[in-house]
Amino acid sequence: MAFDFGALLEKMKMLLASDHASIVSINLFVALICACIVIGHLLEENRWMNESITALTIGLCTGVVILQISGGKTPHIFMFSEDLFFIYLLPPIIFNAGFQVKKKQFFRNFMTIILFGALGNLISFITISLGAIGIFRKMNIGKLEIGDYLAIGAIFSTTDSVCTLQVLNQDEMPLLYSLVFGEGVVNDATSVVLFNAVQNFDLSHINTTIALQLVGNILYLFISSTFLGFIAGLFSAYVIKKLYFGRHSTDREVAIMILMAYLSYMVAELFSLSAILTVFFCGIVMSHYTWHNVSENSRVTTKHTFATLSFIAEIFIFLYVGMDTLDMEKWKFVSDSPGISVKVSSILLVLVLVGRAAFVFPLSFLSNLTKKSPDEKIDFKQQFTIWWAGLMRGAVSMALAYNQFTKGGHTQLRGNAIMITSTITVVLFSTVVRDLNFLLTFDNLEKE
């Protein structure tokens, strides 16, 4: 059999072209992240801008430039991957949230945070899912299954509180800061748990048994994931205390903390648990026990390392969302009926508003019944701020939407394309408009 050198040469050329494209993509994103950091630094005193809005804006501008260069075509500079998001970008963000959290305030308001983040998220999930089923089935948006509607509920019940925390002062408003921060993290974890639970069940014939199994699965994931996070954090503290790595090298201490934190996340993924909850509570335990067992140099290094990794991951996500907004492949499916796309986005925004109001005010009332001190109670202005602060949809919503409605970042179905473009619209609108309006609301709160 003759060896086909021509075919081998063609394969080598394709591999080289693929490698070159990857290098171009990496160079572009690294340069853009640097630009976001520099511009964010220059705009640090401007309360109307923050890293997320800056990254979105730069991503949009870059997308426009790429479209002009490519003659209106959409070259996929970077293919979206759910694995990239959930395995590499999300862990440092969630872990740093747990590692940096003020534990006294967090656990003082723990029941209220769990009430908002878990039960509140469930109420929002049900509200948005039922609304989507009742409204979208009557619209001409393509074929969607019952699992898609429930996935929409999970996608749009998740919040993104990162930007809100940039304008909340922890010292001036500790209660509000703690509630918004804690609810945001628990809410994200709950949404991912709900999303995974919905995907793992046959929802073509829903009955009482399936509903109870769904609830039981959610409770199991919550308890087991939290327990695994505590065990991983305590084990890291025990290993570092007994072996005392700092006697010889702080590098070993830093490395073991980073690797064991990431290991907790991957073990949770391995056993199909909620890796977000696991790594979040691992971060809390490590900051309380492990961090105090390392040398002073390691404490400073780990604190800044975790914060830096989280910061870069967040910028990368918002950059990609901004660039992907101008992916013409998705928008061509709705170009013949832009009115439907606007209606779907508007309906989703209304459902988000209603879903959030459905739990913030009632659960705040229940929480206040258990508080004895007036300072610990949540007044109406604070309730309104919590409701408004949680309206922003961001990275987790985008990742879940891509997971449900695309394959490798692409979609060829009209209904799926409409849901992706609507998710992008909601994320952009809620991130920019809500953030600016919240700043005005927060200014009024400070004056009063």
Write the layout of secondary structure elements.
Blueprint: H1 5-42, H2 51-69, H3 82-100, H4 103-108, H5 110-136, H6 146-156, H7 162-165, H8 174-199, H9 208-243, H10 250-270, H11 275-288, H12 296-324, H13 328-331, H14 338-369, H15 380-389, H16 395-405, H17 414-447
Helix pairs in contact: 1-2, 1-12, 2-12, 3-10, 3-11, 3-12, 3-16, 5-6, 5-8, 5-14, 6-8, 6-16, 8-9, 8-11, 9-10, 9-11, 10-11, 10-12, 14-15, 14-17, 15-17, 16-17
Structure description:
It is found in: Membrane. Its main location: membrane. Residues 31-433 form the Cation/H+ exchanger transmembrane domain. It is a multi-pass membrane protein. The chain has helices spanning 5-42, 51-69, 82-100, 103-108, 110-136, 146-156, 162-165, 174-199, 208-243, 250-270, 275-288, 296-324, 328-331, 338-369, 380-389, 395-405, 414-447. It has 17 helices and no strands. It is globular and about 65 Å long. The model has no long low-confidence stretch (mean pLDDT 78). With 448 residues, the protein is an all-alpha fold.
Give a quick rundown of the structure:
The chain has 448 residues and is an all-alpha fold. 76% of the residues lie in helices and 0% in strands.
